[in-house]
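**Discrete fold encoding**
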Amino acid sequence: MIPKTVLEQRGTYWENRIKVFLAEDVPENPVVFIGDSLTERFAVEKYFGPGFINRGIGGDHADGLFERRELMALDKNPKAVFLMVGINDLLFDYQRDQIPQNIEKILTYIKEKVSNCDLFIQSIC
């Protein structure tokens, strides 16, 4: 689980989103969207219905996403994972030199947990 010190560092909004994730009933073989506010604001459940899970947190950075990796719903054997993260790292000049390594850690974790799912890396054009 996420250490209390991390929750305190990330703030109330981040902590409240984590509580939502923990309370959510995730079905087997979902399609999971993981990322920051761009992901959070995309109402996947509204557009696609049950089985589409949103794990976005506004304002999050790549390292924050990695810290909450256990809440990605990967234990439910997703059919597909959509990842969009890094814009806040660039926008706020947050650990800019670590962005590639932080994203690589996330990708490695996902591939190790669910090697048989489709993984889509999203970006803004």
